[in-house]
């Protein structure tokens, strides 16, 4: 994409305009800090903020302005931020492009403001002071640490609690196996294994639970919000009237199961014949939905005070996970099957229990599953520091067609059965009448049975062919014999 095309698209999470270099350097270095704390970005000087109008910088001042920009960032930000500052020309006007790389030593901040007030992050097209939970996440990321592997402050567990957690994890792992051979391969979860996964820590001869352990077993933690999945089914296409709602709590596997069952009971389901057996056919790819719920729980930011949301509307299903993607990944990466773990202990625990695969690629599988069902491709987007996956419902087309076909066939079968029943009833009436009056003529039968002459003749032929009736003697003066 050319620089002109970027400008035409306007400011966004990775692009900001400045008409001139502000005298107060904080007005642009906070954006540099925000880019470094995120996925990087570009500042363009010489483009009017808000409008995108290219005003340019006097050519004789470009070199001096570039030096001033580098000096301002070097003197006011810490740790050191990697920049690539270069001149550019668009529509004959000189600009300065400042490319900021995503940093590895987060958090980056404006030194004079301190780490708490001077750490900024990018939210949409604006740079904002980082909230407390975001700052904690940046500190952990800078130290290459996973939050769920940290000791859960203020939480203590007994040996019996750990043994019960081990038993539960082993039970779930075996339940999720597809074959008996796989079940035999599952090794029992133990306290030692929990330590290796990061669910427990050993300190002073004691086992200390980590946040990951608390999330797996559903144990409340004093200093953070207890993770939940909030589910809602709405009438229409906006958050209006609830049809159904549920808050899923407890251990993460229990939450995943409850949220999954909530979706199943609120989406349309039909049936299809497989051989002689009937099976349920849902309007959405239910395996992909369960995986999406698992991934939302697995990859979410547990420092965020928000929760996972599962929202069902008339036209779509939305699954929203707080925190968005990790800094090293983009939405395009996720669509192409790449994955990077945010919560290492939880990931290891869910993989052991057979709830997620260790190979990643979940988002790519959503697309495959929808394509196989003839559905529109799902939408994957980052909005307000959250990752949203949207599955589009069948909009009744295929379901109604299938139901209409089934209904038509059922009606046809019903009509056929009704006709057969009516024919048999007519035959029985004729046999009963002739058993009492074997001398009756065709005119007598037409009068008493209520059928037309051709109807009586057809039924008589059928009864004689079936061996249930015989004519004795001549057509005139003869009699009927019921067999």
Structurally, how many domains make up the residues?
4
> Which topology of the largest domain does CATH recognise?
Heat Shock Protein 90
How many beta-strand segments?
20
Alpha carbon gyration radius: 36 Å
Helical content band: 40-55%
Characterize the main sheet: 6 strands, mixed
> What structural class do helix, strand and pairing data support?
alpha+beta
CATH architecture of the largest domain: 2-Layer Sandwich
> What is the average of the pLDDT values?
90
Q: Which descriptor suits the 3D outline? A: elongated
Strand arrangement within the widest β-sheet reads 12-11-15-16-18-17
Q: How many helical stretches?
A: 17
* Alpha-carbon distance between the two ends: 92 Å
Q: Briefly, what CATH class of the largest domain?
A: Alpha Beta
Any low-confidence stretches, pLDDT <50, length ≥5?
Answer: none
Strand percentage lies at 15-25%
